[in-house]
Amino acid sequence: MKKIEAIIRHFKLDDIKSSLTECGVEGMTITEVKGFGRQKGHTEMYRGNEYAIDFVPKVKVEVVVAEDKLRQVVETIMGQAQTGQMGDGKIFVSDLSEVIRIRTGETGKDAV
User: Fold this and answer.
1) For the packed helices 70-81 and 13-22, what is the interaxial angle rounded to 10 degrees?
2) What gap in Å lies between CA 15 and CA 21, rounded to an integer?
3) What is the reported pLDDT for 40?
4) In degrees rounded to 5, what are phi and psi of residue 4?
5) Other beta carbons within 10 Å of 22
6) Per-residue pLDDT of the chain (112 residues; tens, 9 = 90+)
7) Can you give the pLDDT at residue 108?
8) Which of 29, 3, 33, 1 is nearest to 16 (CA)?
9) Which H or E run includes 21?
């Protein structure tokens, strides 16, 4: 099992959600996050004053998939999230040693 975490732009969430559902992804967790990478934040004007926005708002999408679906899901996220501009985000893939469904006690693929 693999856990995929994708940090994306807010306005790309609906496209990614729809595409992942079409790929057979049955569940996902969405979290609003803030951070910075190479963008290093930005400045905004409010009532004539300039403010530094150090942490850029993003969305984190987390999905768990079987290893045979990994490439398809990563490519789907990349295809939908990519604008070609700095700040498109990152995708992190990690191994899961075990998944357990609390309600039934199922483990592994059955728990996802």
Assistant:
1) 150
2) 10
3) 67
4) -110, 125
5) 9
6) 999 999 999 999 999 999 999 999 989 999 999 987 776 666 667 777 777 777 888 999 999 999 999 999 999 999 999 999 888 999 999 999 999 999 999 998 888 8
7) 87
8) 29
9) helix 13-22
Q: Pick the closest to residue 28 from 77, 61, 68 (CA basis).
A: 61
Tokens 């079409």 correspond to what residue?
A: 22
Domain extents for the chain? 2-111
Residue 17 is predicted with a pLDDT of 97
Quick one: pLDDT at residue 36?
79
16 phi and psi, to 5 degrees? -65, -45
Query: 2 - beta bridge partners?
Result: 65, 95
Distances from the Cα of 47 to the Cαs of 41, 44, 50, 51, in angstroms? 20, 10, 8, 10
- The token duo for 11 is 């306005």
CATH class of 2-111: alpha beta
Spell out the residues 6+ positions from residue 105 whose beta carbon is closer than 8 angstroms to its own.
none
40: helix, coil or strand?
coil
